[in-house]
Structure formats: C-alpha cells, structure tokens
Amino acid sequence: METKRTVFPNKLLPYLFVAPQLVITLVFFIWPATQAVKSSFERTDPFGFSTQFVGITHYIRLFQDPLYLNSVGRTVVFAVAVTAISMGLALLFAAAVSRLVRSSQFYTTLLVWPYAVAPVVAGILWWFLFNSSTGILPYMLRYFGVVWNANLNGTHAMILVIIAAAWKQISYNFLFFLAGMQSVPHSLTEAAAIDGAGPLKRFWTIVFPLLSPTTFFLFIVNINYVMFDTFGIIAATTNGGPNQATNILVYKVYSDGFIGLNIGSSSAQSVVLMLFVIALTFIQFRYVERRVNY
C-alpha cells in the first residue's frame, strides 16, 4: 500500500502555518516561565526598581515556612477531592446518558453548559448558594442540625471550593467519557448480555477497561486544571481564607507576589509548582500508562 505524503510547494509555508502557535507559546508560556525562574534567584524591591542576586535563598526559606508546607497539604487534599468527584460524577452521567436513545442529545447539552461558565462566575454562583445569610443551601442544612458558615469555618470553606471546582470540570470530563463509551463496539456488550452478564458487570468488565486511555488523559488534564485553573474560583469565593484554610499553592503564588509584594518568593513558588506538575505528569506517563490498554 502506497503512503501518500503532503508536499508543500514552498519550503517556508509549513513554518508559516506553525508560526502563530509558536509565537503564542513563546510569548505567553516560555518567556514568563523563564522570567519566573530568573526572578526566583533574585530579591526585588516592591517597586521593581532594583534586584539583588540571592541564589537559592528563596527556595530554602520556602521549605522552612510552615505556612507554605501547610499550603502543600491543602493543595493535595483539594486536588484529590476535585479530581475524584469531577471524574466520578462525569463517568456516572456519561454511563446514564449513553443508555438513552431519543433524549441523549438533550441531556448532553444540559450537562455541557457548565463548562462555558468562567471559573470566577462558577465561584460566585456557589458562593451565593452557600452564603450563610442568604444562601438556600445553608437554610436547608439547618433542618439537619448543620450550621453552615464558610466565612468562619475552614472545613466548610474547603468543601465550598471543592464543590465549585468539581462542578466546573464535570462537563469537560463528561464529554470525553461519553465519546469513549460511544466508541465501544456494541457487539462486545451484546455478546456479554447474551452470556447473561448484567448491565453493571458489562460496564466494569468491558466498557470501563476500554475507557482506560480516556481515563488516563482526563486524569492528567484534571490535575493540571486543579493546580493552575482554579485560581479564579478561590479568588471569587474565599480569597484563601478563613485563616489560610483554602490558600492552595496557585493562590498563594498570587497572594505573596501581588498582595505581599514578595516577588522573589512568589516566583520560587511558581517554579516549584511547575516542577511538581511536570514531575507528576512524568510519573503518570512513566508508570501509570503501562496499565492503559490502547
């Protein structure tokens, strides 16, 4: 079988096609990352008029700071909870919608809508729902003896941001899980049904193993989402409070750098966060991907 190969009449044309993406990557990703690494080795005055090279001083102080270490622990809890909830509910919704025949497109549209909502809007929405004075959910919780106040209770605040962040990501996960389920050959599930396997057994023994590439991809995407894209939700709901209870790593970079004006420490935190995500992604591709069946 002869393989077709695309030939460009002009040798510069392929580079022109990729040039816009390369420029965007250099301007908005490579250059800021380089500046963050450079700034992490410097002490900068609050107005940015002078800098002094201090080596790894910021990194040493960072890992000696109990507030930063506590923020790491809170980030791990936040990441695990958001990833588990968003992927678990998305898988449940995708399994339910895939069984529908006539109204599947209608339910798919309803479940996709939250993904179009900006993180700040999602945070404000859930902040209103959980507002201790005017929110409907705290009013309903009073009937169960729960006095909800995310402004004073750190556990309540963490639950609030976890729910808001997970709700925002469910739609994205749902789309990929639904597409993966629809690509599973019906002949496999029909053969299992003929052999007497129930719906739950067919799902766990046939459908879910075939979704392993999709699950692996979504796991990586969700970890990156939690680490970087949840800043707007924290800023709109709790501002890292109360008493640093929701001050996860991505928000601490902002609060120390833009509010505390400690540019060097903030840059060091951003570098550590970037290296942590890169290392986690490498571990996932190096060890977890071995269990994926393509």
UniProtKB/TrEMBL annotation:
It is found in: Cell inner membrane; Cell membrane. It is a multi-pass membrane protein. One of its GO terms (biological process) is transmembrane transport. Residues 72-284 form the ABC transmembrane type-1 domain. The complex is composed of two ATP-binding proteins (UgpC), two transmembrane proteins (UgpA and UgpE) and a solute-binding protein (UgpB). Belongs to the binding-protein-dependent transport system permease family. This is sn-glycerol-3-phosphate transport system permease protein UgpA. Its main location: membrane. It holds the Pfam family BPD_transp_1. The keyword Membrane applies. Part of the ABC transporter complex UgpBAEC involved in sn-glycerol-3-phosphate (G3P) import. Probably responsible for the translocation of the substrate across the membrane. It comes from Pelagibacterium lacus. One of its GO terms (cellular component) is plasma membrane. The chain crosses the membrane at residues 12-31, 76-98, 110-130, 150-167, 203-223, 268-288. It comes from the Bacteria. Keywords: Cell inner membrane, Cell membrane, Membrane, Transmembrane, Transmembrane helix, Transport.
